[in-house]
Every structure is written in C-alpha cells, then in structure tokens.
Design goal:
3-stranded antiparallel β-sheet
C-alpha cells in the first residue's frame, strides 16, 4: 500500500499549498455568491416592477407624452443641452448626455423618433440630484434623438439628428 507524502508527515510541497489555496478560494467564493444568487432569484422590488409599459410601447412622440401623463405644448429651450454624436458608426450603442439648467427638473426622457419603440429611457430625479445624466441608447437607423425635461413649469426639449452608418462610411 502506497502512502502519500502528507500522510507520512513530510513537508507540503508548493503544489499542495497551491491546491489547498485554490480549494479555499473556491469555497469562499461559493459562500459569498450563494446569498447574491438568492437575491437575484427573488422578486424584484416594487420600484423596479412599476415601470410604464404603455410609454415604452408607444410608437410616436405624442403617444409617449400621453403615456407619461405630460400635457401641454413641448417647447425647445436653450437650457436643455443634449450631447449626442452627429454620425454614429453603429446604432447598437450610442452615447447620449443630457443636462438641464432649468429649475425644478423632475424627469428626463430620451426619445428616438424613428425607432420601433420611441421611448429609449425615462429617468425620475429628486431635488438632491443634479439634473444631468449620461447613458447609451440603441438606434435602429438614422433618426432624431429628443431629450424631454419635465419641470414644474412644463415640458421642454432639445433635438438632434443622428446619422447611423453601418460601416463608418459617412452620411
């Protein structure tokens, strides 16, 4: 019968230390990930379930405004600043930045007018947050991107045309 070096009381080799360290790391990781997996499988919190399905399913700007409950005219305003590239090589990931200089900014919504679903993003803001955001949206093709800002005084906007090229060949 063959006995191992460890059973005979020999010193551990580097291989044994490395194997033991790997087993300990796997056990520790499994112990940390188990609660995270349980949280991921649990029901989402109420604030995450209460999204506006009608607004995200809307197909035009007036339908989105109605679904969001925003009434009255939408006015372009210089204090609503929209930064988006004029030519995007791919519509898969288009970076967008919006900043509002208007007081009492409550919500910011991003629309892509020619997308199948017009509403791309909707953000509710608290008074403690600075009214600016940066995100990425998906564009189905060349379209106008609209930033809508809701304040206590009404809804204001900024618009910019984004040309989507599939190979970076321009216009």
């Amino acid at each position: 019968m063959k006995t191992s070096n460890l059973a005979a009381g020999a010193r551990w080799s580097r291989r044994h230390w490395l194997a033991a360290a790997c087993r300990a790391a796997v056990a520790a990781t499994a112990g940390l990930l188990a609660p995270l997996a349980a949280m991921a499988l649990a029901a989402p919190p109420r604030w995450a379930r209460a999204w506006n399905a009608a607004a995200f399913a809307a197909r035009s700007e007036p339908e989105v405004l109605a679904a969001l409950g925003w009434s009255g005219p939408v006015q372009d305003h210089p204090e609503v600043r929209l930064q988006v590239t004029e030519i995007a090589e791919s519509g898969a990931v288009v970076p967008v930045q919006v900043q509002s200089g208007l007081p009492d900014t409550r919500r910011i919504a991003l629309l892509a007018l020619d997308n199948p679903n017009t509403l791309a993003a909707d953000f509710s803001l608290t008074p403690l947050l600075a009214p600016r955001l940066a995100t990425r949206i998906k564009l189905g093709g060349t379209t106008t991107v609209v930033a809508l800002v809701q304040t206590g005084a009404g809804v204001f906007s900024a618009r910019q045309l984004v040309k989507v090229t599939q190979g970076g060949c321009g216009g």
